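User: Hey, quick favor. My workstation is busy. Could you predict this chain's structure for me?
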Amino acid sequence: MAAEPLRVLEPKRRERAPWRVVVAAIFGPRFRRITLFIGFLAFAGLLFPRDASFEVMTLREGFPAKRDLIAPIQFYLLKDREQYRVEQAAAARRVAPVYSTDASVAGATQALLDTLRAVDTGGSRVVARLRAMGLSPEASRIAAGPDGRRLLAIASRLAEQAYATGLLAEIEGARLDTDASGAMIERDGLRLNTPWTDLMDVPQLRDLAWEEGVRAFPGRPEAARALQELVAAIVVPNLRYEASTSERLRAEARTAVNPYDGMVRKDEKIIGSHEIATATHIRKLNSLREWRLHQKSDPDWRRDVPPLVGRLILIALLLLGFGAYLKLHHPGVYAEASQLLLLGILAAVVMGVGWLVVNQFRGYEMLIPITVLSLSAALLFGNALAFAATLVASLFMGVIFGLGLPFLTGSALAGIAAITTATGVRRRRDFYRPMLVVALTYAVAIAAIGLVDGARFDVLLRRMAWGMAAGFASVLAVTILLPLLESVFTVTTDITLLELADLNRPILRRLMLEAPGTYHHSIVVGTLAEAATAAIGGSALLARVGAYYHDIGKIDKAEYYVENQANARNRHEKLSPTMSCLIIESHVREGAEIARKEKLPKAIVDAILEHHGTTLMSYFYSRAQQLDPETRQEEFRYPGPKPRSKETAVLMLADAVEAAARSLSDPTPSRIRGVVSRILEARVKDGQLDESPITFEDLAKVREAFLPILMALFHARVHYPGVLTEEEPRHADKHRASREGSRLKIDHS
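Assistant: No problem, here it is.
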């Protein structure tokens, strides 16, 4: 008979205010899933290669090509980079430097000379002025003497000669940065190329002044030196170097250098399959990429749209298919946006590393860490979801980066190895086994793919070594990231649960010392819940650990719970039913608060809150009805929520049947079976299991898992005649009191 869900009636929903409905519709789970879907698509779009036909081709010098590469278009070959840089530098040096002419300099110089000629020679004023201009005392005396006017005339003629073509400060320094035969002189809005020989600089002008002085004043070297000093002081350069203009012309010259020195025609073979790549092959491939990038600057962007849209459609279909799988087989993950975000982040990290590997380490695509996703998903969500996530992520890589069947096969093998070994990972030290297995799987997969591709032996060994390193690094990354992912995304792994199962943890030791009856009850309930949850395919470890902590809220008021009351003294006899109800009910709320302070996972907090559901405290309700027949049931029910997972549903049932079986005076197998069946039927009839995924078939398995444990714990003892006969009445009284107290505990629970 097919399993039938226990949900028989849809619970009534309270009417909500219209604005709450609108907000829930806009920012509800569906909105978050759609936002995550769009964000993931956008991220995948950023990783797409710009041209699938060759952008994904990987060539490394000395390595074989994976397939034939045929030129899809005609393109030109790029020059060798070093050669191209040399040609650009040579072109820049051939550019003549640009100098502008300052017309005001010549006018100012002639005006100064005219002023000096207008002053009477021999006067002290002329000497002082010449000294102020930098002339030596002797040169100033000669220039102010009878030969002064002749000196000034010669200086005026030399100035006109220098300014006619242009005067530089120093020609040799200007020629160091260029191979040009001259300079570009800007004068009156025109730029003329002037040979260096037609230009004059200050050192040449000084030499020319000396020569003119010697010819004009033979036998008088002091007069020649005076002329030289006078010219040097008065005639200053009129050419100014234009650095920005010169650099712009050099940049234009560098840009004008042709970067190509050959051509590859359309449909010409660039490299053949399994052919060893050389520098020429790689230069052709780089030239093809550059030519296509050059073409993409063309305004006709529409030709790039179809490939992009096609890939986005494929990614979207894969995402939708994976979402449908989650909705059918992992509804809890599908409903939690945080867990979907966690899966998306893991996939995005793997894809981002994949982009780096494909673009920077061509030929080593097996280094893409699919196993990080596989192992993390297996530990966080289980093996079934991890298998699906590994398959979908591998297909993402194939679609985005154009990786073929060898990569898909290798990554799937590594992912399966990681998932398989994750089954036994329950402690931190257990990561060594998957680390070794994943590394060896990487090595074997890479070796097999290399043999198919015909790779050289040395290349094969190098790739295998890198693959093993990637396997170790992937598992190491998971061990580092796992605690962070658990805390941020509120997902609990078996590793954390095993740490919480340590009975020496401070909160459990407090429970043992301050509420020993509750502690013993929790241990027994944990055994029952673990066996029953394992029988229906749930997380047995989570059920057991949840049982250990489900009653920690009783620590502060342990004496108000019957399992902790010595000699069966009941403190509730002196309290009103309502007050007793409040005390008993508070252990759920206080337990959740303690769990949050102890930073226990959300799954344990849920177990504390849900293990009573909304059950009725019938003992106190009956007492209240005797006092007031108008008492409402709702006032004596636990606040809930009802169990929403298999584990918390089984915990509720285990908690109830343990107390019921303990109350039996003659716990025979038939009586235990009858009590268990009645408890389970009562919980179903009360609707406590309506919100859990447990089915009638699961319920039957739970009952059969409970029975052997309860029979072993509460079997009838054999009476040995004559032993302790004097104490039998006292033991009988205690046994009777224990039965009464246990019945009260059932009502409390």
